[in-house]
Design brief:
With about 450 residues, the protein is α/β, with parallel strands linked by helices. The chain has 11 helices and 24 strands. Helices cover about 30% and strands about 25% of the residues. Strands 4-3-2-8-19 form a 5-stranded parallel beta sheet, covered by helices on one side. A 5-stranded parallel beta sheet has the order 10-17-11-12-13. Strands 5-6-7 form a 3-stranded antiparallel beta sheet. Helix 2 runs parallel beside helix 8 and helix 5 crosses helix 6.
Length: about 450
């Protein structure tokens, strides 16, 4: 902005280069490729069941693949929602609807063994208990889910008085949950999360702690409950649960990440645990004898390494699948025709999981309903006269969009236009310059360079 003469010279160069490139532009043909009107959903949890039912309800045959022997996933670990309803009944009913839907084929104890093809024309091999099966489909929804983090802190696994929030839910749903002699309960939030083993916030832990605290209070109103927290992230209507817990006498004590509460065992198994933590309001440490210590742990995604490499889709540093764009394409993956939802994408509440699964299924049904796809014309083009069939392009293509036809002599490279993203890696690697990119041809680029050198 402070060099107007240089800026003007640069503008002239850019215009001259653009004109020189325009002289070499040619019309790029638009292709229409057929779409196999079938959807594949990987994962039989709440997200996968919702996505499969949504796509099948729109009239498209759907194959659901679940590696476990039953449908439902992590949602079956919950025994009550914040309103007191049992979510297991809803999930079980949803699984029953999926199993009996005429357009849904369920494969349990099965896993994806291999995937090939592109949007509209995928071919997936499913390895199941009865052998391998090949499924042709046009789109794919990833809903592989997650699982609770297994804590090793605070004597978990060593003392019967220490349990996670999910383990507490199981006890609360049993016929005889706890002894009437229990007087005091301590909960610790963010165990293993936000900087320890897990670098992220799982969002559901605070709401789960509030829900279980209210359930304990309903069971025994005189019970004293302390909650050590870093930040209470009770957003939305969960704020009502936080206010109700405060009104019922639940005591919340904030702790700093560098000074978390410390837990020591009692003198015997029947003795209470001792929890020592700093109270910033009192300005001193408090020592609590607790009959029960409840740990709020986060959500860990199922290992995505094999499937992500197979599909050529990226994952985050925390092993969650990475969406194409957080605002514009929140359920799309970088590879066209592949969508993600549920805990495979990020930790979220059940209502958020359902909404995202419906969104992913809705996006997946768009190319199926259209019946055909129009890939971007800016793709690689192979000059067969210059191609020597060395295979460098096939090796370095990140999207597997180039193949070498080994049955034809001499060998030549071929571009799968539906898979090509126009990145140009193949053109840069080709030793004989046999590959050009649409709108970025060798002649066009050289014309730009020569035009820049003609500055006067």
């Amino acid at each position: 902005m402070h060099e107007p003469e240089a800026a003007t010279a640069k503008a002239k160069d850019l215009v001259r280069m653009a004109v020189a490139k325009a002289a070499h532009l040619t019309a790029l043909p638009e292709q229409r490729l057929p779409v196999t009107p079938v959807a594949l959903v990987i994962g039989g949890g709440l997200a996968g069941l919702t996505a499969a039912l949504t796509s099948a309800s729109q009239g498209f045959p759907t194959t659901l693949v679940e590696q476990g022997d039953a449908l439902g996933g992590s949602a079956l670990l919950l025994t009550a929602d914040r309103f007191g309803h049992d979510p297991r009944q809803v999930v079980t009913e949803l699984a029953h609807r999926v199993k009996n839907h005429p357009r849904i084929s369920v494969r349990t104890k099965a896993a994806v063994a291999s995937v090939s093809g592109y949007v509209g024309n995928f071919t997936t091999t499913i390895a199941g208990k009865t052998g391998s099966e090949v499924v042709n489909h046009g789109v794919m929804v990833i809903a592989t889910g997650g699982k609770p983090y297994e804590p090793k802190q605070y004597l978990h696994g060593e003392s019967e008085r220490v349990m996670t929030q999910l383990e507490l839910e199981q006890r609360l749903a049993s016929s005889r949950p706890f002894s009437t002699k229990m007087k005091q309960v301590v909960m610790i939030q963010c165990v293993g999360s936000r900087g320890a083993d897990l670098a992220y916030c799982s969002r559901v832990c605070c709401g789960q702690a509030l829900k279980n605290a209210l359930r304990l209070k309903a069971m025994s109103p005189e019970l004293t409950i302390f909650v050590f927290y870093r930040d209470m992230r009770a957003y939305g209507f969960l704020e009502d649960d936080y206010l109700k817990a405060r009104e019922l006498g639940v005591i919340f004590i904030r702790y700093a990440p560098d000074n978390p509460p410390k837990v020591t065992p009692g003198r015997s198994k029947s003795s209470p645990l001792k929890v020592v933590g700093y109270d910033p309001l009192l300005g001193e440490e408090v020592e609590l004898d607790t009959d029960l210590l409840v740990l709020s742990v986060g959500i860990v995604p199922e290992d995505p390494s094999i499937l992500s490499r197979m599909l050529k889709v990226p994952v985050t540093a925390d092993k969650f699948y990475l969406e194409a764009h957080v605002k514009l394409r929140p359920v799309d993956m970088a590879v066209d025709g592949i969508y993600v939802c549920g805990l495979a994408h990020a930790p979220k509440l059940m209502d958020e999981t359902i909404a995202q699964a419906q969104a992913a299924a809705g996006r997946a049904c768009q190319p199926l309903a259209r019946g055909s796809i129009s890939p971007e014309p800016i793709v690689s083009h192979v000059d067969f006269e210059l191609c020597i069939g060395c295979g460098a392009c096939e090796t370095f293509c990140p999207y597997k969009a180039i193949t070498i036809d080994k049955e034809v002599k001499p060998r030549k490279a071929h571009t799968l236009t539906a898979s090509c993203k126009g990145c140009g890696v193949c053109a840069a690697r080709c030793p004989t310059m046999a590959i050009d990119m649409g709108r970025f041809t060798f002649d066009g680029i050289m014309a730009q360079i020569n035009a820049f050198g003609e500055r006067v």
